[in-house]
Specification:
The strands form three sheets. Strands 1-2-3-4-5-8-9-10-11-12-13-16-17-18-19-20 form a 16-stranded antiparallel beta barrel. A two-stranded antiparallel sheet has the order 6-7. A two-stranded antiparallel sheet has the order 14-15. The protein has one helix and 20 strands. It has a single domain, classed as membrane protein fhac: a member of the omp85/tpsb transporter family (Porin, Beta Barrel), CATH 2.40.160. It is an all-beta fold and 385 residues long. Strand 3 and strand 4 form a beta hairpin. The radius of gyration is 21 Å and the shape is globular.
């Protein structure tokens, strides 16, 4: 699946890059499984399987990583320190098969339309360099990606698939990192961060495509309504901003907030942000189906109250608000919307084990239904030597 939209991968990278290099070889293994189910407006669900192996303590403090996540395999040699530890670099290869971006699903007003879904896969390779002057981090990254597409059994013959193409992805990132250390910030089987302190990030990027053509459900005699918004340019530009904050207001009570904003130009559904769900791979909207909305312009906030009920058991409540563009997914006179969601959660650690359970609802997914409801559960285990 796609990585945590707007900050999750950055959490892991920033904490690890701040740690000193070690001469001793270390082995870390994380295993996790998760599932999210939505009950209204219609029943559906997706699952996640995670296997992450990291070898740390290699020359120059480098890490070798094998990361498998459901349909995605990533191999990386990263966190290679140089310039007396003030800079690092890394390279990676990544492939996602068939369900990249969950383009197999097409949701409109909370209802799936199988005729508009299709298979999407890609292969990419690239690298990064990062200057580190704690608590400030400045990164430049570049990837070369090749997209492949295919039809599902239910895909309408009239649906125009995107062109198979090469893409050069260039990113510049700035991060301010003032979070207290916590295992949830670097152990992949702990899916939800326990945040104390603040972190802030900015990102600017450009995707340069070898081909660019209009695609999607553009035949109004077949699709009602037609979707005309997938007509990208050869160059897609984007700007992102994110913030994490957490404060301990009582020995047993913590308040936590995650905020993000995104603005894209000349984009399509291949790169728009996935909105909806309670998993780490989306802009959260409790209660909504996973990736209910795909947005090129958005602003979001997620507020949660965490109560330590017993030892390493936290329970609490979540409130989400997301403003998105083109709520109706037509590309014609795009209508913005403000969406709301709320839920409750349990987050339990027992030694190397991690368990999560979340339930939520959204009153604003569909104009014809009063609410959407969903459940999320996860279990994970970690090992180090």
């Amino acid at each position: 699946m796609g990585k945590r939209v707007l900050g999750g991968a950055v959490l892991l990278a920033m904490v690890a890059s701040a740690a000193p290099a070690r001469a001793k070889i270390e082995h870390h293994l994380s295993l996790a499984a998760a599932a999210e189910l939505w009950l209204r407006p219609e029943v559906g669900g997706h699952g996640v399987v995670i296997i992450n192996y990291t070898m740390a303590g290699l020359p120059r403090g480098a890490h070798f990583v094998i990361d498998y996540n459901t349909d995605t395999l990533r191999l990386a040699y990263e966190k290679i320190r140089f310039a007396d530890g003030r800079a690092e670099a890394g390279v990676q290869t990544k492939a996602e098969v068939l369900i990249a971006g969950l383009l197999t699903d097409y949701y409109r007003h909370g209802i799936s339309d199988p005729k508009r879904g299709f298979y999407a896969s890609y292969f990419s390779t690239g690298g990064y360099v990062k200057a580190t002057e704690n608590p400030h981090y400045l990164e430049l990254a570049f990837d070369i990606k090749r997209w492949f597409f295919g039809r599902e059994n239910a895909t309408a013959p009239e649906l125009i698939l995107p062109p198979e193409m090469w893409v050069g992805e260039l990113r510049a990132r700035y991060t301010l990192w003032l979070l207290d250390p916590d295992p949830s910030l670097w152990e992949p089987h702990r899916l939800f961060p326990r945040v104390r302190g603040v972190a802030f990030g900015l990102e600017a990027g450009a995707d340069i495509r070898s081909d660019s053509r209009a695609w999607g459900a553009r035949d109004a005699s077949v699709f009602a309504p037609a979707d005309y918004r997938n007509d990208p340019s050869r160059v897609v530009v984007q700007a992102r901003q994110w913030f994490y904050g957490g404060v301990q207001v009582h020995p047993r009570v913590r308040l936590q907030v995650a905020e993000s904003a995104l603005w894209m130009w000349n984009e399509d559904d291949l790169v728009r942000a996935r909105v909806g769900g309670m998993n780490p791979y989306v802009v959260p909207l409790a209660g909504a189906p996973w990736a209910s909305f795909l947005a090129g312009r958005l602003a979001s906030a997620d507020l949660s109250v965490h109560v330590r009920a017993w030892r390493e058991l936290e329970v609490g409540a979540i409130a989400d608000v997301v403003a998105i563009d083109d709520y109706d997914r037509t590309g014609v006179s795009p209508k913005a919307a403000v969406l709301f969601g709320a839920g409750a959660f349990g987050d339990f650690r027992y030694k190397a084990w991690q368990f999560d359970l979340r339930a939520g609802f959204s009153p604003s997914v569909s104009p014809t239904d009063h609410a959407a409801w969903s459940l999320f559960g996860a279990a994970g285990w970690g090992w180090s030597r």
